[in-house]
Design brief:
Layout lengths: L3 E6 L5 H9 L7 E2 L3 E2 L14 E2 L2 H9 L3 E9 L2 E8 L11 E4 L2 H12 L6 E7 L2 H13 L6 H14 L2 H6 L5 E3 L3 H21 L1
Parallel strand pairs: 1-7, 1-8, 2-7, 3-4, 8-9
Antiparallel strand pairs: 3-6, 5-6
Helix pairs in contact: 1-7
Bound molecules: adenosine-5'-triphosphate.
Length: 204
């Protein structure tokens, strides 16, 4: 039985960078899952690459069929935009393990979805960076944007402390933290855990 390795962490903790390195690692042979969104496609995006682009009616239909693994809806100035993961055949735990990225809340929802089907397959990978350093990385990344949004950066930085409260981590049984000081050694540390879990999952 495969596992779902689920990367989480506050903004600018390095989730995307770590995700890319792990996903490219042939030895781990992890598959990724393409999410769906109801937001309009942006220029440069491609159907099925960044997301599958669908409308709210499609999402409602999948909810009715019980096929929505997790869904997050954000109120934007353009109206509500949903981002969701479907049980659409992409995840085949009988033959593969998967690498996903999300929030603490989505981790909980995905975990519950599979546990309700008797599958305890979730492995949390929680990335951490000291707050001062993380804020500096976030600012440096934002400076590279054509139109930096510093107010949004600050809003997310403050919201993170609430979302990732110690008690929330504890409640979900997340007791291991991967410090992203130097990214290569952080990825090596995570890789060792993934290989160990994959070895374990082959025994049972
Ligand atoms: N170990 C590291 N040392 C220095 N810079 C790093 C390190 N890891 C990642 N970064 C840089 O920090 C910034 C944030 O990383 P990344 O975008 O991967 O984080 P994230 O957690 O996916 O962020 P968000 O959730 O806000 O999108 C990027 O500019 C990235 O290149």
């Amino acid at each position: 039985m495969g596992r779902i390795f689920y990367i989480m962490g506050k903004s600018a903790s390095g989730k995307d960078s770590i995700f890319r390195m792990l996903a490219a690692d042939q030895e781990l042979a992890l598959k990724t899952v393409t999410m769906y969104t109801t937001r309009p496609m942006r220029s440069g995006e491609e159907e099925g690459r960044e997301y599958f682009f669908r409308d709210a009616g499609f999402l409602a239909g999948k909810k009715a069929e019980g096929r929505v693994i997790e869904c997050r809806t954000y109120d934007t100035v353009f109206g509500p935009w949903s981002y969701f993961t479907l049980d659409d055949g992409q995840i085949d735990l009988a033959s593969h393990s998967y690498l996903m990225i999300g929030t603490l809340e989505s981790y909980e929802t995905v975990k519950e979805y599979f546990e309700a089907r008797g599958q305890r397959i979730m492995v949390p990978l929680y990335i951490e960076v000291e707050d001062g350093e993380r804020l500096l990385r976030a600012v440096r990344r934002e400076q590279l944007q054509a139109e930096p949004h510093y107010a949004e950066l600050c809003r997310r930085f403050l919201a993170d402390s609430e979302d990732f409260r110690e008690e929330n981590l504890k409640r979900l049984g997340i007791d291991r933290v991967f410090e992203n000081v130097e990214i290569a050694s952080c990825v090596e540390e995570i890789k060792a855990v993934i290989l160990e879990k994959q070895k374990e999952s082959m025994l049972y």
